[in-house]
Specification:
269 residues, alpha+beta, nine-stranded antiparallel β-sheet, 33% strand
């Protein structure tokens, strides 16, 4: 697993769910119980996520900011992991130190409590129910690389076994100078297990004050393929399969060879 590498390039891992909102006008949506949800959810997770931060966007009306996080619940000030909540959206975010077992256990602590908090609120005389419309597991990795001095496309090919190129007439054109920059490549595939979509994205960026190649691995499902928290076995089977069968295998296929040895660090000795 990426988190078991001594020098893993992991920047962030997150599990996100979105749930059904009520349309109340053009491009406006409402979660009729969100105002009550924040406090009820916090009461259920405060033993592990006791530090609350309200983001500036919370000042903007909920109806015009659907699926935007407004509250953060942390283990301590500036601490990780953290839980984020907004109208129609909740995420669990991890950074280093990370392990899959801890991530999975924390997910199983957080999300059932969200469903419990949501279901206990009455709206219009009827108890509400969390209906998930999208689930997403994302891993963001940053591999140190000075893309101002290194050919990012050559780095991709020699280190991440990924080939992309433009026609010779373009790459050798007299009007071009320097190395290719502003790299942003993405490819997606339909998945059988779990049913959904898998995405691989490469982009130039930064990690801290260092230039880096960002490698993002995503699995997401929506529509009829969505597992619900009420069907716990199906939901957690989706999460584990997204990690074990897709993201972990993609990651190690990409870094096979020099980068894997580099990330093993002292483990390789």
């Amino acid at each position: 697993m990426p988190g078991q590498l001594a020098k893993a390039p992991l920047v962030e891992a997150l599990l996100e769910i979105r749930w059904k909102l009520v349309p109340i006008g053009p491009n406006t949506f409402q979660d009729p119980v969100y105002k009550f949800l924040v406090g009820r959810f916090y009461d259920r997770i405060r033993e592990r996520f006791g530090h609350v931060e309200t983001l500036p966007i919370a000042q903007v009306p909920d109806e015009i900011t659907p699926y935007m996080v407004k509250q953060q619940f942390r283990v301590a000030k500036n601490g990780w992991p953290l839980v984020q909540l907004g109208p129609g959206i909740a995420t669990l975010n991890f950074t280093s130190p990370y392990s899959w077992l801890t991530f999975e256990e924390t997910s199983k602590f957080v999300f059932p409590k969200l469903a419990d908090a949501y279901a206990g609120i009455s709206s219009g005389g009827t108890d509400t129910k969390l209906i998930i419309t999208r689930i997403l597991l994302r891993y963001i990795n940053a591999i140190t690389m000075n893309w101002l001095e290194t050919d990012a496309l050559s780095f991709l090919e020699s280190n991440l076994h990924t080939t992309f190129g433009l026609p010779h007439e373009i790459t050798q054109a007299e009007v071009l100078t320097g190395l290719p920059g502003d790299l942003n490549l993405q490819i997606g595939y339909s998945l059988q297990k779990p049913i959904g979509r898998g995405l691989v994205r490469f982009a130039t960026g930064r990690t801290g004050n260092r230039q880096a190649l960002i490698c993002e691995l995503v699995v997401q499902s929506q529509g009829e393929d969505i597992p619900q928290l009420s069907a716990a076995e199906t939901f957690w089977s989706w999460v584990r399969s997204a990690h074990d069968d897709v993201i972990e295998k993609l990651f190690f296929a990409l870094i096979k060879g020099r980068l894997e040895e580099q990330f093993k660090g002292e483990q390789a000795k």
